[in-house]
Every structure is written in structure tokens, then in C-alpha cells.
UniProtKB/TrEMBL annotation:
This is ACD11 homolog protein-like. Signal peptide: none annotated. The lineage of its organism: Eukaryota, Viridiplantae, Streptophyta, Embryophyta, Tracheophyta. It comes from Durio zibethinus. One of its GO terms (molecular function) is ceramide 1-phosphate binding. The keyword Transport applies.
């Protein structure tokens, strides 16, 4: 009986280890985007639907952060949904930007180009959060999130939103609670977070270059 129990426990452990967690799916998706940009950037544009598929996976991270990032979650999810709908009419990110440039609506609230800019900020916020989270084992999630928000989003948010986010930081889960929600350990989370950090950088840079190459500043 003990031997049977051991076999069962071993198999359960293997199943758990091979299950694709949210972090695994996100890291893999952005590694695929990064690899595509590395290999095809000169002769092929990034498809909007492929980009949206990867971005949709990130939504779960915002939901795990609770009330403090509820506004960011709602904004991010809405913007990604808009781009998903846009992908039914536009093949690439460049197509979206070119239309708004032609119509003079790049920065217009609700435009696809503005929503793409906000989604890009969401991806960068998660990147910065992971970097801060991994910078020290003693660094609380609240400290990591506060620093990441101040770096990436605060410069573009109104005083009211910044105040609400600041108050909400006290409702963030603990480091341990976040790992539990993500079904990760410190060790597995670190590997996957680092993979996302590395893979997301070229994607974020690619989006920035789309704006810059069209003489659109990034200070908004």
C-alpha cells in the first residue's frame, strides 16, 4: 500500500510540474513573438492577431494583483479587446498605425493606435514589476508594484488615478499569496519571470519604433 501511495504521489508531482501555469504560457508566448521579430523583422510584419493572443494571456496577472491594479486591469483588458476586434480588419500592427496616421487620430481616445500604446504600457508595467519583484527576496510585492507603477504608468495618469492606485497598494497580496495564485514556487516563478522580462523587451521596443518611425513621440 505504501509503495502504491508513493507511485501515486510521484505521478501527481510530475503532473503538477508539467502543467502549464499562467506564467509558463505568458513566457512562451512572448518568447515566440521575440523570436519572430529576431528572425523576420526585415521581411515580415508582426501580425495583430498573434500579438493579441499573447497580450490576452497577461490579463490574469493584473487580476492576481487585486484592487490596486483594478483600474489597470480594466483598461488593459478593454484595450486588448479593442485590438482583437481590430485584428479582424487589420492584418498587422503597422496597418493600424498607418490608418490612424492618415486620419490624424493616433492620439484620439478610443483609436486603435492609442489603445495599442496603452497595451504596450501594460506589458512594460508587468516587465518592471517582475524586475523589482526579483531584485530582492526581501522586497515586498507592494514595494515592487509601487516602484514599477511610478516608473511606467504614473507619468501618464491623472492625480486622481495615481491617488487611487497608491491607496490600493495596501490591498496587494503578499509575495507568498501571489505565488500561490500563480501556482508557482519562488524558484519556478523566477525562471519564468526572467524569461518574460527578456522576451518582452524586443516586443516593447518594436512597438515604440513603429511610433517613432512615423514621427510620433512617446510622451503620452
Amino acid at each position: 500500500m505504501d509503495e502504491a501511495d508513493n507511485v501515486f504521489n510521484d505521478s501527481q508531482t510530475k503532473i503538477t510540474m508539467t502543467m502549464k501555469t499562467p506564467l509558463s504560457a505568458i513566457a512562451e508566448a512572448f518568447e515566440e513573438l521575440s523570436e519572430f521579430l529576431r528572425c523576420h523583422m526585415k521581411d515580415e510584419e508582426l501580425r495583430l492577431d498573434t500579438f493579441c493572443d499573447a497580450c490576452s494571456l497577461v490579463s490574469v496577472l493584473f487580476s492576481c494583483l487585486g484592487l490596486a491594479f483594478k483600474f489597470a486591469e480594466m483598461e488593459y483588458v478593454a484595450k486588448v479587446h479593442d485590438l482583437v476586434e481590430a485584428s479582424k480588419r487589420f492584418a498587422t500592427l503597422e496597418n493600424v498605425l498607418d490608418l490612424d496616421v492618415a486620419n490624424g487620430t493616433v492620439k484620439k481616445p478610443g483609436s486603435h493606435s492609442r489603445n495599442l500604446r496603452r497595451v504596450r504600457q501594460g506589458l512594460d508595467l508587468i516587465r518592471a514589476l517582475f524586475e523589482e519583484f526579483l531584485s530582492s527576496e526581501d522586497y515586498s510585492l507592494r514595494d515592487a508594484a509601487s516602484t514599477a507603477y511610478a516608473q511606467v504608468c504614473a507619468p501618464y495618469h491623472t492625480w486622481a488615478i495615481r491617488t487611487a492606485v497608491s491607496a490600493g497598494m495596501y490591498t496587494l497580496p503578499t509575495r507568498e499569496q501571489l505565488l500561490l495564485k500563480l501556482n508557482e514556487t519562488d524558484q519556478t516563478a523566477e525562471k519564468k519571470m526572467r524569461r518574460y522580462i527578456e522576451a518582452s523587451r524586443p516586443v516593447i521596443e518594436y512597438i515604440d519604433k513603429l511610433y517613432i518611425s512615423r514621427n510620433i513621440t512617446l510622451d503620452w
